[in-house]
Amino acid sequence: MNEPRAAAPAARPSAVGTWIDHHLYSLVASLGRVFRKPWAALLTIAVMAMALALPLGLWLVLGNLERLAGNIERSREISVFLRQDVDSARARQLADELRARGNVADVTHIPPEQGLASLREDDTLAGIIDAVGDENPLPHALLVLPAGDELMVAESLRQLPEAELVQHDAQWRQRLDTWLRFGGRVAWVLAALFGLGALLVVGNTVRLDIQSRREEIGVLQLLGATDGFIRRPFLYLGAWYGLAAGAMAVALLAAAAGALRGPLAELAASYGSRFALGGIDGPWTLAVLGGATALGWLGANLVTGHFLRQTRPTET
């Protein structure tokens, strides 16, 4: 008789498979711990969201101020009004000569007829222009866009024999740029302070969860569990808090933008501008969600690392 064959031993799971399984388990289990105490979790997420929304809102305001100030290229334009005795041929020739300069990006020639037509479009000036009669008092004008140092370009344009007046009011733009740079520095400082606050909030929340599972962690340490194995669920817990806080911060900013968009558009329209509030787009949202998730992960990592260093069993 044939002897029965022995059953083949079950295949042991690989180390990589076990590592992936524990990551997936920690990811789902940590989310379950968030929903286990919904009100406490919501309070933590709301505090983190407010801490994130404030500097992010300031960045959005600064970005919209830059847009509201106008096209930066247009604000760099230098207006050159030529003498009355300069004819159209010489004005076009002078525009071509200026375009050939290395420190000039572009030159736009505005003949007197075009300048007068643009002035007539302004209701406040239309009556004054009509009172002048058929005679056009405007000279040829050149709009010069510098490619280098605009102050040097403006000074060289003043030396032109055909130039009657050179307008280049760069002081207001320099002051605006200074204020915007200062606002950007303030936004970075606030981001660091509020980011640290969010880090402390998520760290304290994870610390409380660690304290509630102190005995369980002690047993795992006695059984030889690695620090990574013990730390993993808390890292995902902090990441969930950060992701939820980032989503709430984006929602708060989107709601604020929606409430302000209509009145701001009406205000801009009253000044003849088509300015519209902007700044919350897909890449910006993804960056906020990713940064908030990383912030929550980091807070949980710092707290669990400190706890594990204190509770690690000493060898005898």
Automatic annotation (TrEMBL):
Topology with respect to the bilayer: Multi-pass membrane protein
Protein's cellular compartments: Cell inner membrane
Transmembrane segments: 39-62, 186-206, 239-264, 284-303
Pfam families: FtsX (PF02687), FtsX_ECD (PF18075)
Domain ABC3 transporter permease C-terminal: 189-297
Origin: domain of life: Bacteria
Keyword Ligase attributed: no
SUBUNIT field: Forms a membrane-associated complex with FtsE.
General function of this protein: Part of the ABC transporter FtsEX involved in cellular division.
Protein name: Cell division protein FtsX
Organism annotation: Luteimonas kalidii
Gene this chain is encoded by: ftsX
